[in-house]
Structure formats: C-alpha cells, structure tokens
Write a sequence for this structure.
C-alpha cells in the first residue's frame, strides 16, 4: 500500500486549521500566525506551501467546494446505478447541500465569510461563480426531464438554487441550526413535490 507523503498531510492540516481560524476569528481576523498556531507549525510552512494567507484561504475554500462536488458525484453515481427518477435525483442534490460537513460550524463560518468577501475579491468571486454554475447545471439537468418548456425549466432551476442557498443561510444564522437545517432540507424537498404536482396536472 503506497505511503502518503508528508506534504499532502501538512496541506490538509493547514486547511483544517484555516477553517478553524475563520470560525474563531472571522476571515479578516485570520492571519498566518492564527493558522500556524492552530496547526502547530511554523508560519513559514504556510508561505512555503500556499504562498501566504490569501493562498491558504483560497485552498480552504476550494476544499469546501471539492467536498460539495465529491458528495454530489457520489449521489449522482448512485442515482445512475438505481435509475432513479428526475425528482429523486433532485432530492439527492438537496441532501448533498445539507450534509453534516456543509453545516459544520467551521465550514458554515467559512462559507459566510467567503460569500461576503467574494463581493470585493475577484478570485473568490470566480470560485463562487463556478459553484453557482455547478448547482444550477445539476438542477437544470433533472428539471429539463420534468418540464417541457425550456424557460420554465430555467426559472425552476434558478428558484430552486436560490431556495437551497437561502434556506442554508437562514439555518446557519438561526438560534437552533440543527433543527433549522432539518426543516430547510424538508422545505426544499417540498418544493420538488410542488414541481412534480404541477407537471402531473399538465399531463392530465
């Protein structure tokens, strides 16, 4: 079995420390020193692997995006294996966006800081645009199989993406996030049922 090199291990530790630092200090309060202290490494290691604070923060955000993408790919492979309906595939997408990792305190804090900073940071804005396009595209793929009118399918995908993001945000900011996340996931799935009922009525 091949051994894992020290560099990937250190990179992962620094990314985890960055997420924790953002949770504790916010994006602006996170520094090379706060990250290195949490990771138990010298500040020079961060510069060596990531080129500085901006580099390690972008790496942490890419890590979150990769976790989201990988989780979705697992669900979609399962959807193909089970030959699920388009509506069931949409429910899998919803579940991926409300998994434990995506709503953990460190990830939630980083998402909030990421969205706020993307308004002013072109590189972060680019990452957010990629993330938004990916969600829209995956939703639209299933919705086009359910809704004949192309514009209506586009509108439904935009509405559903906004619902997922909005419900996630409200859940993070609620006094009882766990209960709020459970309700948010249920409401997003309820929206899928509304679409299904609308399609069925058109077919009558």
């Amino acid at each position: 079995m091949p051994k894992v090199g020290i560099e990937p291990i250190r990179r992962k530790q620094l990314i985890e420390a960055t997420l924790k630092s953002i949770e504790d200090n916010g994006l602006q309060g996170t520094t090379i020193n706060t990250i290195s202290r949490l990771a138990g490494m010298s500040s020079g290691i961060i510069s060596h692997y990531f080129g500085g604070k901006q580099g390690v923060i972008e790496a942490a955000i890419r890590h979150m995006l990769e976790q989201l993408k990988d989780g979705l790919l697992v669900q979609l492979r399962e959807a193909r294996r089970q030959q699920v309906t388009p509506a069931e595939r949409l429910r899998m997408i919803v579940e991926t966006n409300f998994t434990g990792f995506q709503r953990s305190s460190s990830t939630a804090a980083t998402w909030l800081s990421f969205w706020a900073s993307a308004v002013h940071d072109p590189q972060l804005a680019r990452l957010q645009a990629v993330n938004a396009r990916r969600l829209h595209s995956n939703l639209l793929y299933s919705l086009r199989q359910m809704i004949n009118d192309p514009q209506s399918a586009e509108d439904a995908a935009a509405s559903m993406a906004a619902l997922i993001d909005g419900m996630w945000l409200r859940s993070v900011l609620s006094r009882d996030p766990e209960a709020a996340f459970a309700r948010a996931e249920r409401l997003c799935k309820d929206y899928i049922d509304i679409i299904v009922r609308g399609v069925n009525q058109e077919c009558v």
